């Protein structure tokens, strides 16, 4: 269930369009930006933590690698797990957000957008359905339809 939500969040953020008007209304653009930077910066931080753990344990002074890891390994592992969980939390939040049902105002906007696109709206629309419709609307329609938000 947890991994399914994370996978759904990844799909949701991949399909949610980046647009200045949408950025003012929805927090998804800011989350996308933060996760994009996180995917770039966290792997070097993990490498740095492992290297620092090795050096602080005396790894460059002739002591074997496995001997040094016993001293600092729990703190290094905790730091790495924390960094990875920060990224996973962003995708988990997005997955929970994707499953939210739309409020009445957004439901009306969603139905009007589906009508303009010539497609059948979902009976109980969610944020994921809205993201799909917005993505398709920005490809096919003039971006002025976003002003109705």
Number of strands: 0
Could you report the average pLDDT, rounded to the nearest whole number?
Answer: 88
Return Rg in Å.
22 Å
**Quick one: biggest sheet?**
none
Number of helices: 6
Distance linking N and C termini: 33 Å
What structural class do the secondary elements suggest? mainly alpha
| Apparent shape | elongated
Task: Give the helices and strands as they follow along the chain.
Answer: HHHHHH
Helical coverage, percent range: over 70%
Approximately how much beta-strand content do the residues carry?
Answer: under 5%
- Note poorly predicted spans: none
Subunit arrangement of the protein: single chain
Subcellular location: Cell inner membrane
Organism: Candidatus Anaerobiospirillum merdipullorum
Keywords: Cell inner membrane, Cell membrane, Membrane, Transmembrane, Transmembrane helix
Pfam family, one: DUF412
Note the main attributes of this structure:
single chain
Describe the structure.
The chain crosses the membrane at residues 45-67, 73-94. Pfam families: DUF412 (PF04217). It is found in: Cell inner membrane. It is a single chain. It contains 6 helices and no strands. With 149 residues, the protein is mostly helical. It is elongated and about 70 Å long. The two termini are 33 Å apart.
Summarize the structure.
Helices cover 74% and strands 0% of the residues. The protein is built from six helices and no strands.
Secondary-structure blueprint:
Elements: H1 2-15, H2 20-25, H3 28-56, H4 65-98, H5 104-117, H6 127-140
């Amino acid at each position: 269930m947890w991994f399914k939500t994370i996978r759904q969040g990844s799909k949701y953020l991949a399909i949610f369009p980046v647009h200045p008007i949408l950025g003012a209304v929805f927090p998804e653009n800011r989350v996308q930006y933060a996760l994009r930077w996180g995917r770039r910066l966290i792997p070097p931080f993990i490498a740095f933590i492992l290297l620092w753990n090795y050096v602080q344990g005396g790894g460059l002074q002739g002591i074997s690698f496995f001997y040094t890891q016993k001293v600092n390994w729990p703190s290094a592992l905790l730091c790495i797990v924390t960094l990875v969980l920060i990224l996973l939390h962003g995708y988990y939040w997005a997955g929970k957000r994707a499953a939210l049902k739309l409020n009445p105002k957004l439901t009306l906007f969603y139905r009007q957008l589906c009508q303009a696109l010539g497609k059948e709206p979902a009976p109980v629309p969610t944020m994921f359905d809205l993201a799909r419709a917005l993505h398709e609307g920005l490809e096919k329609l003039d971006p002025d339809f976003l002003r109705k938000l």
